Every structure is written in C-alpha cells, then in structure tokens.
C-alpha cells in the first residue's frame, strides 16, 4: 500500500498536467510504516531527460537521484517510490515500464493525463527480487 | 575508508544498513569489498561474467564513474560512493504509453 497526503497526491498529478503532452517524472520519499505501507513524506520533481521522445518515454538522471537521495537522508527520508505520467494513455504500466523497473519493493505511480487533464492515478509495487521474476502489482493508494 | 550508500531495494542484502564503510583505493576495490562482506548482494550488482549490470549506476560523490575512470577511479578517505539503479520507462513501438 502507498500512503500519502492529499497535497502530495495533488502535486504529482499536477506535475503531469504541467508537462503535458510530455511525460512528467519524480521521486517519492518517506519511510515504510509498521504495517508495511510506504508512507510518503515528501516528493521531488525531476526533469525528464528523454528530450528525444518525451511524449512516451521518461528517464531520470541518476545524478539527480544521488542529490535527491542525499537531501532525503538529511531529513531521515528514504526513496520509497517514483511517479510518472502517461499523456493520453491509460494509467497502466507498459512492457518497457516493467523492463526498466529495478527498485524492488518500491511504488511506481502512474497518472493518466487525458487531453491535458489528470485522470486516473494508479500505483504498482515492483515485487520479487530477481530481474527475471519481477512483477508490477497493483496496490492501494491511501490518500490521508 | 569510503562510504557506500545502498539503495532501498538492496538493503535486505546488507543487514538493512543504509550505508556500508569499505576499504579500497579504487571504486572497483570498494565494490568488491562490499560484495565480499555481503555475498548475497553480488548477483544484484554484477552479471555472471563479473561485469556491473547495465542498469546499475555508480557515482563517486556527484560524478558518474563511467565518465571518470570507471571501476579504476581512485577513491579517497571520506568519499561517498552511491549505487543507483536506473529509473526509466517508455513504450515499445506503437503500444500504449510509457
Ligand atoms: Zn509508463
């Protein structure tokens, strides 16, 4: 389960609206609650470095992740997930999303942005521990 | 000693520690020190041929070691090494969104 405040939920959906018709992307920071839910306490907007095909690709510069991770550490926060948007496509993961997902036990949040307006937002946990047996499994988003 | 920062998905292989202190004069030596202390981690970082996996980025402080001297990049006391699996997605040809 992914747990986050209304303002963070709104902010990640808003980001997809701002970058439309291109994909937005960002990082979810926080901690794992005692019940196993990932609790988001801050989000970091990232630049989509895929300037060649930003309408259907995203990539976060690992150098930006190193900085976000360090800033998170200073606030006792860990990376618990990521988000991106799907301009004019459903809030479902694609084969490439799965192939390029490597953060096991983290949440991958996808917001469908239809004609510039955020529609459905879904979250998926990357389960398994091996590249060959990984899955993106739908999980509940609890907005608190 | 350098400090290697472990990303959340790999901490289960290093007794849940967020970072591990290692000896080594190069990035490669530091990483080998890490996986010899924590052998279960090895296959998540390296291929069977012993190469770093393509999606595993290694940063020395704020620099990608691919653009320095790769695994031969010199490490000094107090340096921070980060293991950063890549974050990306996208469509396969004309299929649904990325
Ligand atoms: Zn996607």
What CATH architecture of chain A would you give?
Answer: 3-Layer(aba) Sandwich
- Identify low-pLDDT runs of chain B: 93-97
Oligomer: heterodimer
CATH superfamily of chain B, called what?
Answer: Beta-grasp domain
Helical stretch tally of chain A: 3
Mean pLDDT of chain B: 92
Name the biggest interface. A-B, 43 and 26 residues
Known CATH architecture of chain B: Roll
Largest sheet composition of chain A: 8 strands, mixed
- Quantity of strands of chain A, as a count: 9
Radius of gyration of chain B: 15 Å
Ends distance of chain A: 12 Å
Taken as a percent bin, the fraction of beta residues of chain B is 25-35%
Helix content of chain A: 10-25%
Structural notes for this entry:
The complex is a heterodimer of chains A (144) and B (98). Chain A is an alpha/beta fold. In chain A, helix 3 links the parallel strand 5 and strand 6. The longest helix of chain A is centred in the first third of the chain and has 14 residues. Chain A is globular. The model of chain A has no long low-confidence stretch (mean pLDDT 96). With 98 residues, chain B is α+β, with helices and mostly antiparallel strands. Chain B has a five-stranded mixed sheet with strand order 2-1-5-3-4, covered by helices on one side. Chain B is globular. The C terminus of chain B is likely disordered. Strand 4 of chain A pairs antiparallel with strand 6 of chain B, so a sheet runs across the interface. Zinc ion sits at the interface of chains A and B.
């Amino acid at each position: 389960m992914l747990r986050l405040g209304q303002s963070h939920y709104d902010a990640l959906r808003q980001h997809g609206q701002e970058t439309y018709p291109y994909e937005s992307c960002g990082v979810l920071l926080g901690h794992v609650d005692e019940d196993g839910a990932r609790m988001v306490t801050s989000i970091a907007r990232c630049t989509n470095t895929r300037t060649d095909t930003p309408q259907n690709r995203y990539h976060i510069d690992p150098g930006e992740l190193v900085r976000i991770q360090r800033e998170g550490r200073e606030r006792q926060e860990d990376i618990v997930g990521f988000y991106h948007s799907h301009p004019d496509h459903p809030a479902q993961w694609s084969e490439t999303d799965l192939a390029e997902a490597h953060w096991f036990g983290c949440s991958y949040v996808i917001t469908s942005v239809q004609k510039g307006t955020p529609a459905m937002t879904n979250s998926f946990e990357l389960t398994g521990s091996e590249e060959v047996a990984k899955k993106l499994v739908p999980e509940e988003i609890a907005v608190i | 000693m350098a400090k290697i920062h472990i990303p959340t998905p790999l901490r289960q292989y290093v007794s849940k520690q967020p970072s591990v202190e290692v000896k080594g004069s190069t990035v490669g030596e530091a990483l080998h020190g890490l996986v010899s202390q924590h052998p279960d981690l090895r296959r998540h970082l390296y291929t069977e041929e012993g190469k770093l996996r393509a999606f595993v980025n290694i940063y020395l402080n704020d620099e990608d070691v691919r653009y320095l001297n790769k695994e031969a990049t010199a490490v000094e006391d107090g340096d921070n090494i980060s293991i950063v699996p890549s974050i990306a997605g996208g469509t396969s040809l004309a299929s649904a969104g990325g």
